[in-house]
Amino acid sequence: MSDLLSNALVINLALLTLLILSVISYFYFHRRLSTKYQTLENQLHQIQNEIRAINSGNLGMGRKISRFAEDIANVEINSLQSEMPNVSEKIYRQAGLLLARGATVEEVVESCEITPSEAELLAVMHHSVHEKATNH
User: Fold this and answer.
1) CA–CA gap between residue 136 and residue 134 (Å, rounded)
2) Range of the domain at 86
3) pTM of the predicted model, to two decimals?
4) DSSP symbols for 110-128
5) Domain tally for the chain?
6) pLDDT over 70, % of the chain
7) How far apart are CA 25 and CA 23, in angstroms?
8) Of 95, 93, 135, nearest in space to 111 by CA
9) Are 123 and 99 in contact (CB under 8 A)?
Protein backbone atom coordinates (compact mmCIF):
# COMPACT_ATOMS: atom_id res chain seq x y z
CA MET A 1 0.00 0.00 0.00
CA SER A 2 2.86 2.35 0.65
CA ASP A 3 4.07 1.74 -2.89
CA LEU A 4 0.66 2.60 -4.13
CA LEU A 5 0.62 5.79 -2.07
CA SER A 6 4.08 6.76 -3.17
CA ASN A 7 3.14 6.14 -6.81
CA ALA A 8 -0.01 8.24 -6.35
CA LEU A 9 2.05 10.96 -4.68
CA VAL A 10 4.57 10.94 -7.57
CA ILE A 11 1.74 11.10 -10.10
CA ASN A 12 0.09 13.94 -8.16
CA LEU A 13 3.40 15.82 -7.94
CA ALA A 14 3.99 15.31 -11.68
CA LEU A 15 0.46 16.55 -12.43
CA LEU A 16 0.94 19.51 -10.07
CA THR A 17 4.25 20.34 -11.75
CA LEU A 18 2.60 20.04 -15.16
CA LEU A 19 -0.22 22.31 -13.99
CA ILE A 20 2.25 24.92 -12.66
CA LEU A 21 4.24 24.81 -15.91
CA SER A 22 0.99 25.18 -17.87
CA VAL A 23 -0.05 28.23 -15.82
CA ILE A 24 3.41 29.78 -16.21
CA SER A 25 3.33 29.12 -19.99
CA TYR A 26 -0.17 30.56 -20.19
CA PHE A 27 0.88 33.82 -18.51
CA TYR A 28 4.11 34.01 -20.53
CA PHE A 29 2.35 33.57 -23.88
CA HIS A 30 -0.56 35.76 -22.79
CA ARG A 31 1.89 38.56 -22.02
CA ARG A 32 3.69 38.10 -25.36
CA LEU A 33 0.39 38.08 -27.27
CA SER A 34 -0.84 41.09 -25.33
CA THR A 35 2.35 43.01 -26.20
CA LYS A 36 2.05 41.95 -29.83
CA TYR A 37 -1.65 42.95 -29.86
CA GLN A 38 -0.77 46.38 -28.41
CA THR A 39 1.94 46.86 -31.04
CA LEU A 40 -0.47 45.93 -33.83
CA GLU A 41 -3.14 48.22 -32.41
CA ASN A 42 -0.67 51.13 -32.31
CA GLN A 43 0.32 50.44 -35.92
CA LEU A 44 -3.35 50.34 -36.90
CA HIS A 45 -3.98 53.76 -35.30
CA GLN A 46 -0.90 55.16 -37.02
CA ILE A 47 -2.09 53.87 -40.41
CA GLN A 48 -5.58 55.26 -39.81
CA ASN A 49 -4.10 58.68 -39.01
CA GLU A 50 -1.96 58.56 -42.16
CA ILE A 51 -5.03 57.65 -44.25
CA ARG A 52 -6.95 60.58 -42.72
CA ALA A 53 -4.06 62.91 -43.56
CA ILE A 54 -3.90 61.62 -47.14
CA ASN A 55 -7.67 61.97 -47.55
CA SER A 56 -7.70 65.53 -46.25
CA GLY A 57 -4.77 66.33 -48.56
CA ASN A 58 -6.66 64.80 -51.47
CA LEU A 59 -9.72 66.88 -50.65
CA GLY A 60 -7.58 70.01 -50.55
CA MET A 61 -5.95 69.12 -53.86
CA GLY A 62 -9.37 68.36 -55.36
CA ARG A 63 -10.59 71.80 -54.34
CA LYS A 64 -7.49 73.44 -55.79
CA ILE A 65 -7.85 71.51 -59.05
CA SER A 66 -11.52 72.49 -59.23
CA ARG A 67 -10.66 76.17 -58.70
CA PHE A 68 -7.89 75.88 -61.30
CA ALA A 69 -10.32 74.35 -63.82
CA GLU A 70 -12.80 77.18 -63.14
CA ASP A 71 -10.04 79.75 -63.67
CA ILE A 72 -9.08 78.12 -66.98
CA ALA A 73 -12.73 78.08 -68.09
CA ASN A 74 -13.06 81.77 -67.19
CA VAL A 75 -9.92 82.62 -69.14
CA GLU A 76 -11.23 80.69 -72.15
CA ILE A 77 -14.60 82.45 -71.94
CA ASN A 78 -12.91 85.86 -71.63
CA SER A 79 -10.63 85.02 -74.53
CA LEU A 80 -13.56 84.00 -76.72
CA GLN A 81 -15.49 87.09 -75.72
CA SER A 82 -12.55 89.34 -76.51
CA GLU A 83 -12.12 87.66 -79.90
CA MET A 84 -15.81 88.00 -80.81
CA PRO A 85 -15.79 91.81 -81.21
CA ASN A 86 -12.71 91.50 -83.41
CA VAL A 87 -14.53 89.05 -85.68
CA SER A 88 -17.58 91.32 -85.81
CA GLU A 89 -15.37 94.32 -86.35
CA LYS A 90 -13.66 92.63 -89.30
CA ILE A 91 -16.99 91.68 -90.83
CA TYR A 92 -18.33 95.22 -90.53
CA ARG A 93 -15.07 96.67 -91.88
CA GLN A 94 -15.29 94.32 -94.87
CA ALA A 95 -18.94 95.27 -95.38
CA GLY A 96 -17.96 98.97 -95.30
CA LEU A 97 -15.27 98.39 -97.94
CA LEU A 98 -17.73 96.55 -100.17
CA LEU A 99 -20.23 99.38 -99.82
CA ALA A 100 -17.49 101.90 -100.59
CA ARG A 101 -16.71 99.99 -103.80
CA GLY A 102 -20.36 100.21 -104.80
CA ALA A 103 -21.71 96.79 -103.67
CA THR A 104 -25.45 96.44 -103.08
CA VAL A 105 -27.00 95.58 -99.72
CA GLU A 106 -27.80 92.07 -101.01
CA GLU A 107 -24.18 91.53 -102.08
CA VAL A 108 -22.95 92.66 -98.65
CA VAL A 109 -25.42 90.28 -96.94
CA GLU A 110 -24.17 87.35 -99.02
CA SER A 111 -20.46 88.18 -98.77
CA CYS A 112 -20.30 89.10 -95.10
CA GLU A 113 -23.05 86.80 -93.78
CA ILE A 114 -24.78 89.58 -91.89
CA THR A 115 -28.49 90.27 -91.65
CA PRO A 116 -30.15 92.54 -94.22
CA SER A 117 -30.99 95.08 -91.52
CA GLU A 118 -27.31 95.25 -90.50
CA ALA A 119 -26.27 95.70 -94.11
CA GLU A 120 -28.88 98.43 -94.62
CA LEU A 121 -27.72 100.23 -91.47
CA LEU A 122 -24.12 100.09 -92.68
CA ALA A 123 -25.21 101.38 -96.11
CA VAL A 124 -27.02 104.32 -94.50
CA MET A 125 -24.00 105.08 -92.30
CA HIS A 126 -21.64 104.80 -95.28
CA HIS A 127 -23.85 107.04 -97.38
CA SER A 128 -24.07 109.59 -94.54
CA VAL A 129 -20.29 109.63 -94.01
CA HIS A 130 -19.68 109.80 -97.77
CA GLU A 131 -22.05 112.79 -98.13
CA LYS A 132 -20.36 114.66 -95.28
CA ALA A 133 -16.95 114.05 -96.83
CA THR A 134 -18.02 115.37 -100.24
CA ASN A 135 -19.80 118.42 -98.77
CA HIS A 136 -16.76 119.63 -96.83
Assistant:
1) 6
2) 2-135
3) 0.40
4) HHHT--HHHHHHHHHHHHH
5) 1
6) 89
7) 5
8) 95
9) yes
